[in-house]
């Protein structure tokens, strides 16, 4: 059986952790050699950690690997289990929909206000735009996962 994939999110997570590692290493070397440090590393690292978190959560969601308690689900007969799976999917979509909605609103407000980041003076929305984009992508993964579980493609490995 072919395993579900989330290539885009895996690529984003890999790039984020790679860039975080490189700029952190460069910052340590520069600090050791010169006594100073790069100003941009903290701001970029925090941004990339958010990307890494959402991309990793999306991959885990697609592969049905989030922390969960499956005792009730495994104990139920087929019909009530399907209802529970649909309920779980609807709850996930609701939470992710709220994150997407409010993240998009917050990003749009930052565009309107022209806010700049405190460290580098870049437009704040450059950082915030990833929140609604990645949470919307997680909504897609939630739908895919729920569909696969309803069709019996993803088992709850106890």
Automatic annotation (TrEMBL):
UniProt KW Translocase keyword: no
Top-level taxon of the source organism: Bacteria
Keywords assigned: Cell inner membrane, Cell membrane, Membrane, Transmembrane, Transmembrane helix, Transport
Record field: transmembrane: 12-32, 44-62, 83-104, 124-143
Topology within the bilayer: Multi-pass membrane protein
Keyword Oxidoreductase: no
UniProt record similarity statement: Belongs to the TRAP transporter small permease family.
Function as written in the Swiss-Prot or TrEMBL entry: Part of the tripartite ATP-independent periplasmic (TRAP) transport system.
Protein name: TRAP transporter small permease protein
Source species: Halomonas saccharevitans
């Amino acid at each position: 059986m072919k395993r579900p994939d989330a290539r885009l999110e895996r690529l984003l997570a890999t790039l984020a952790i790679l860039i975080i590692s490189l700029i952190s290493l460069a910052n340590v070397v520069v600090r050791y050699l010169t006594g100073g440090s790069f100003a941009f590393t903290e701001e970029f690292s925090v941004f990339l950690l958010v990307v890494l978190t959402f991309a990793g959560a999306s991959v885990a969601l697609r592969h049905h690997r989030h922390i969960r308690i499956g005792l009730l689900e495994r104990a139920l007969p087929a019909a009530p289990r399907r209802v529970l799976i649909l309920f779980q999917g609807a709850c996930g979509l609701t939470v992710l929909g709220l994150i997407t909605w409010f993240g998009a609103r917050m990003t749009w407000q930052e565009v309107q206000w022209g806010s700049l980041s405190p460290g580098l003076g870049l437009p704040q929305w450059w950082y915030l735009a990833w929140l609604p984009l990645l949470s919307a992508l997680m909504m897609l993964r939630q739908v895919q996962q729920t569909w696969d579980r309803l069709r019996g493609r993803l088992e709850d490995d106890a």
